[in-house]
Amino acid sequence: MTRDAKASPAPRGGASAKANAAARPPARKKPQPEDQPFAEFVPGLLIPAMAQACATHGGSAPTLQLQEASMPVVGGRCWQIQGELPGPRRFWLCFEKPDINSRKTFALAESGHEPSLLEPFLIDEKRVSLALLVARLVQRLNGQKWLGPN
């Protein structure tokens, strides 16, 4: 074999690596918990996370349930998480539509009273996460001094 006849090694990395990368499907993002349907996300993830977060603040875990019912104070049907703490202290986290990114309101009532005020809840957030919903609910209840010693 002469010098000119020697086989040259294939180029490393070059065009063939780029072609292989282009041929592969794009990497899929791991689905976020918030991407689950509302009817699965709320009872499966949100309610247990809320109960646990309230309990870790020194209070007892609230009784929580998801249902479609009349919105406190103003009426009209909505999806809501109804919660009750010892006392009995009650609160409602209402969703205008069965979607965690829909408009949300919050109401609460002390023992023996009906709620008289409906507050906007997370109105500035475009995309809501599990952690954000739980943190803001705990912050609101703790601000009311309903969770543990303050």
UniProtKB/TrEMBL annotation:
Which portions of the chain have biased composition (kind: Low complexity)?
Answer: 10-25
Which top-level group of life is the source organism from?
A: Bacteria
A Pfam family that this protein carries is DUF2996
Where are the residues of the annotated region Disordered? Answer: 1-38
The record's InterPro entries line, in alphabetical order, gives: DUF2996
Specify the protein name.
DUF2996 domain-containing protein
Identify the species of origin. Synechococcus sp. SB0676_bin_10
